[in-house]
Amino acid sequence: MRIASLHLHPLKSCAPLDVDMLEITPRGPAGDRRWLVVDADARFVTGRQHGAMVGIRARPARDGLQLDAPGMPGLHVPTPPADAPRLDVAIWRDVVDAQRCGAEADAWLSRYLGMPVRLVHMDETSRRAVDPDFATPGDVVSFADAYPLLVISQAALDALNTRLPQPVPMARFRPNLVVEGCAPHAEDGWRRVRIGEVEFEAVKPCTRCVFTTIDPATMARDPGGEPLRTLATYRRAPAGSGLSGVLFGMNLIPRGTGTVRRGDAVTMLA
User: Fold this and answer.
1) Beta strands 35-39; 117-121: pairing state
2) How distant, in Å, are the alpha carbons of 9, 151, 154, 212 from that of 170?
3) Largest Cα–Cα distance in the chain?
4) Structure pTM?
5) 240: pLDDT strictly greater than 90
6) What is d(CA 37, CA 206) in angstroms, rounded to the nearest whole number?
């Protein structure tokens, strides 16, 4: 098994960036989902509600973030200074103390999304714990949905696409790591793996939602509910497993830091 591709999402729900390497930190890949859009009530905004989010291309640039989107001028957002104003933001059931990014970024995103929103940044003083039911004390996560990283086998997507009327790209599922050289859904059975120079604990299969039905090319929802509808026919959580919903991919927690590169070997340890 080896890493086929690596993906970074600097702004939650933005277009993924294909990269050659990831620096793994306790929260996940450095720079992954450290920026977040929130609404007027300081609650997180994602592509589930606003498909246009996937049209935003956010790239690390000059000690900050470069934002581009259809019909919008480019915008450079500096990383907020240590003394920047802060805001308690809600993401799922968590409340996170984050840095405000300023009026210019807020106005740019509000104009693009057609609603009042704000941009916030997770710095090193922000703390968000991983669900203790699937973690150890001290485990932390970025603005990702719940876990530091997501891995999917390429064979799992290939198998899904044989069942769909139209194939879908891996971008529908927003992983950080894509693995080739294994059977479809081999990641379901992982408990601990080494990827490059870093070990990871595989803690919970990923429950999929309506976001998978947003076409990243058109930013529109699939009228037939695909690929979620097809996944529901064969990837529902088994009865008695303690899990629920439609499962696709595996959530990982790093048990160390270091670099993961495209082409690195993936070794199952347990």
Assistant:
1) antiparallel
2) 14, 11, 8, 10
3) 52
4) 0.95
5) no
6) 23
